Request: fold
Amino acid sequence: MGRIAVGTASWTDKSLLESGWYPPEASTPDARLRYYAAQFPLVEVDSTYYGPPNEATTKLWAERTPDGFTFDVKAFSLLTQHPTKPGALYKDLRPDTTKNVYLKDLDAAVVDQVWERFLSALNPLADAGRLGSLLFQFPQWFPTGKRNKAYVLECKQRCAPVPITVEFRNKTWMSEENQAETLDFLASYAIPYVCVDMPQGFTSSIPPVTAATSRDLAVVRFHGHNDAEWESGSVQRRFAYLYSEQELKTWVPRIEALAEQAAETHVLMNNCHRDYAQRNAAQLLDLLNVG
Reply:
């Protein structure tokens, strides 16, 4: 069985800091990351979706965590074809507009620069052996099709040798008629499919299918089941869901099955409301009997 690493999709969320999960002595960014890394071997960086990081910051992340600790990094919104605030772009690359921009709105040379700078900022993590993978979570308006498959492969090529993982939010990828084709496509290029547990019945809903499409890495992300708030527009309300132990237990054999097929399996709790993700991640560590 491959290594199973469990963590959460944030360590600096405002409501987490307010929850009391961190001890009083962990009152600085340095102390909080060191404390988090003593509890879990894995974290997902969510802030990089909203704005690219800089090398000085990622260097500090590497210095504040022990050998064996892993950062999975969420790709910048522009690169996943989400709307992006002009102010989130590098200052010298910002277009002259106050409206959100999309990848298609920018010149190819600007796009190349965004890719280059985003990836180079992660070098300190890679050099320290702390960089796991880059998560590309594509939007609801990114359906299955030839053009979008080509873009997935472009992302893989641009990021190499750092592996990418792919999470879909358009149901066509994993519909009954397309599911096998989607998984075969990802497996053909050894791109890890991100298995999800999330509310069902929405355009963005993806069924809780577990599949290892890469021998190197499998990923599971837990989004909770707060159905009533899923499309509320409030991130805090959407993810305000605490899993019961019984719900987590049903996932244990599925996670272990993934670990039989991949060298590493990353399990991430994205129910980031107060300390819900940390509490559930700790429960999963116990249930899976991994450290």
User: Anything to note?
Assistant: The domain at 3-288 is CATH 3.20.20.410 (TIM Barrel). The chain has a mean pLDDT of 94.
